[in-house]
Amino acid sequence: FPPLDNRLASTLGTHSSSAAILSVSAGYFLWDVIHVSSHYGHYGPPFLLHAIICCLVYLFAVFVRSLHTYH
User: What is the pLDDT of residue 1?
Assistant: First the structure.
């Protein structure tokens, strides 16, 4: 294992590559929320809840610029 300082820095830090990947992921889950909402009768509450929670997590990571694990 790397020293604790390096692991903490990689967890709390950010990188342009990780920001780009997380932005694409947040966009996908935003699309997923819209798609599942428009087909709610087919997918139901579990899929909508999953889409909303994932969208919020990725948007948080993108805008707070934290939790971008990189090495």
Answer: 46
Contact 55, 30 (CB under 8 A): yes
Task: Encode pLDDT of 8-41 as tens digits.
Answer: 556 666 777 888 888 999 999 999 999 999 999 9
DSSP string, 6-57: HHHHHHH---HHHHHHHHHHHHHHHHHHHHHHHTHHHH-HHHHHHHHHHHHH
Burial class, 10, CB count within 10 angstroms (exposed 0-12 / middle 13-18 / buried 19+): middle
pTM of the shown model: 0.74
Counted residue by residue, the chain has a size of: 71
CA gap 4, 51 in Å, rounded: 33
